[in-house]
């Protein structure tokens, strides 16, 4: 089927002058032009990366790596919140080519991100033709590397257990928090299957955690030895950290630093809305438990932290569990735990010099971002996944909870209400310091890695110190050619 341009009134399309003045549109059928295929390829990878929480600046950089390799003309890439636009000016004799696609958020899969980053790196280095790259991308999309569902469930519940380890040595409380975490995970899985919006999922999960904590306290008061003496606040906080862990606060701050203000504003607003959902869920849980006859008053006072060794152990468990939950490659999971414990230890050491919590958290986050950036390049693992797991023990989830509960329990004008405002502001400031510190650490890690690589290459037999990477190419395929 031929497509002809719209002609002016009273003109003859068979006229040679008219045919030369109005060239035909470029035909796109089942066999797309290599230029359009390349742009479509870049848009698909960009959509996947952005949907899994990768910062907008990183997504744009990787998209340009693809288009600058396969396209003869430059392509402009723009990201605005959940909208991706690719535009290419193809000359004065052709209309501009513009593709727009909306992004739907999906669960983070760091192994998929790693595979896409490796694919784009090979494209930039000229190792793959467009045909081979499309085959690789299709394989990544159709068969993503993931852990079994039950492993992910246990890992998600272990996030709550890791929080409990940081505040208590009572194995009963740790086990109870873990089991309640499994219940919350199943509730979230059921709601996801029913396509319930994330805001309402946060409400349901927080309400479930609160009701179950009230039930544990009720059973303890009724003489059940196993539940006697348990602090329901610890159980609620463990469940809340499970919900806070998935918030993309670091990516939001990274977008703001990179001057993607619209995208950053949208992500920050999403974090705020989901946090409000947690608060509403706690209120609904407290009200429901009271109506069921075993109401509790969740304390707004801070929990007493355990010993330093227990906190470091809890931080490591917390980070390892979250790394597995986000499908991080196993070789980077243990490193995430060590980075998290190291960051928390640095935070404690800095505070011993009478430095406030905000700058201390920022310094610890710089360490996490720097080490994660170096290890990610050596082990070919996404730094974003390791950073998110490493800073999780530093995230002021408990301070956020305390501030919100003080605002809920006390009316305006009460001294504790203003205390809650101060606690809430301090928690937000710590979160911003952590996000900015992690971004800065990752930034300085890039040139440092280049310097270390140069020093390594100057050593005798440098190939002994390199991490081998096998390039996968389709079977029976010709050698890559220039495109």
What does this structure look like?
With 483 residues, this protein is mainly alpha-helical. The protein has 2 domains: 32-142, no CATH class; 152-457, no CATH class. Helix content is 65%, strand content 4%. It has 17 helices and 3 strands. It has helices spanning 16-21, 34-51, 56-70, 110-124, 130-142, 149-167, 171-193, 198-221, 232-245, 249-257, 261-292, 308-325, 330-351, 357-379, 383-390, 397-409, 415-457, and strands spanning 76-80, 83-88, 97-102. A 3-stranded antiparallel beta sheet has the order 1-2-3, covered by helices on one side. It is elongated and about 80 Å long. The protein starts with 15 loop residues before the first helix and ends in a 26-residue tail after the last helix. Mean pLDDT is 80; it is low at 1-29, 461-465 and 467-483.
The helix/strand order is HHHEEEHHHHHHHHHHHHHH
Overall 3D form: elongated
Mean pLDDT: 80
Helix content: 55-70%
Report the oligomer: single chain
Side-by-side strand order of the widest sheet: 1-2-3
**Count of helical segments?**
17
The helix/strand class is mainly alpha
Radius of gyration using CA atoms only = 26 Å
Instruction: Indicate the low-confidence ranges by residue numbers.
Output: 1-29, 461-465, 467-483
Number of strands: 3
Number of domains: 2
Query: What can be said about the biggest beta sheet?
Result: 3 strands, antiparallel
> What fraction of residues sit in β-strands?
under 5%
Distance between the termini: 29 Å
């Amino acid at each position: 089927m031929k497509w002809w341009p719209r002609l002016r009134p009273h003109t003859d399309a068979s006229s040679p002058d008219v045919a030369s003045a109005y060239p035909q549109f470029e035909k796109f059928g089942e066999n797309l032009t290599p230029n359009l295929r390349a742009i479509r390829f870049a848009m698909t990878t960009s959509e996947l990366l952005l949907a899994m929480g990768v910062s907008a600046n990183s997504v744009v950089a990787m998209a340009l790596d693809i288009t600058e390799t396969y396209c003869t003309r430059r392509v402009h890439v723009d990201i605005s919140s959940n909208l991706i636009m690719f535009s290419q000016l193809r000359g004065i004799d052709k209309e501009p080519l513009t593709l727009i696609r909306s992004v739907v958020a999906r669960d983070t899969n760091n192994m998929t991100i790693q595979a896409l980053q490796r694919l784009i790196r090979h494209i930039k280095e000229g190792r793959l033709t467009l045909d081979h790259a499309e085959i690789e991308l299709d394989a990544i999309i159709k068969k993503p590397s993931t852990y079994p569902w039950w492993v992910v469930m246990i890992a998600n519940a272990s996030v709550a257990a890791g929080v409990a380890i940081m505040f208590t040595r009572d194995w009963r409380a740790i086990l109870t928090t873990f089991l309640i975490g499994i219940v919350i995970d199943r509730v979230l899985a059921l709601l996801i299957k029913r396509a319930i919006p994330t805001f309402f999922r946060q409400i349901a999960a927080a309400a479930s955690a609160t009701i179950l904590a009230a039930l544990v306290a009720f059973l303890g008061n009724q003489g059940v030895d196993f539940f006697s003496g348990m602090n329901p606040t610890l159980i609620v906080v463990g469940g809340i950290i499970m919900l806070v862990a998935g918030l993309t606060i670091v990516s939001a701050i990274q977008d703001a630093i990179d001057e993607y203000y619209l995208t950053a504003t949208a992500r920050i607003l999403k974090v705020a809305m989901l946090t409000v959902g947690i608060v509403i869920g706690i209120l609904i849980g407290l009200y429901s438990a009271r109506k069921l006859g075993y109401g509790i008053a969740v304390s707004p006072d801070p929990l007493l932290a355990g010993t330093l060794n227990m906190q470091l152990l809890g931080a490591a468990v917390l980070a390892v569990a979250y790394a597995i939950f986000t499908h991080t490659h196993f070789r980077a999971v243990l490193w995430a735990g060590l980075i998290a414990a190291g960051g928390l230890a640095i935070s404690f050491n800095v505070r011993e010099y009478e430095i406030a919590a905000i700058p201390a958290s920022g310094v610890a986050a710089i360490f996490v971002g720097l080490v994660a950036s170096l290890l990610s390049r050596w082990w070919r693992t996404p730094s974003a996944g390791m950073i998110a797991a490493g800073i999780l023990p530093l995230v002021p989830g408990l301070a956020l909870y305390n501030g919100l509960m003080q605002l809920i329990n006390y009316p305006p004008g009460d001294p504790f209400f203003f205390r809650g405002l101060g606690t809430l502001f301090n928690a937000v400031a710590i979160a911003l310091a952590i996000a900015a510190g992690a971004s800065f650490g990752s930034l300085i890690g890039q040139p440092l890695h280049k310097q270390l690589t140069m020093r390594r290459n100057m050593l005798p037999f440098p190939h002994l110190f390199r991490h081998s990477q096998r390039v996968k190419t389709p079977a029976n395929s010709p050698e890559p050619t220039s495109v």
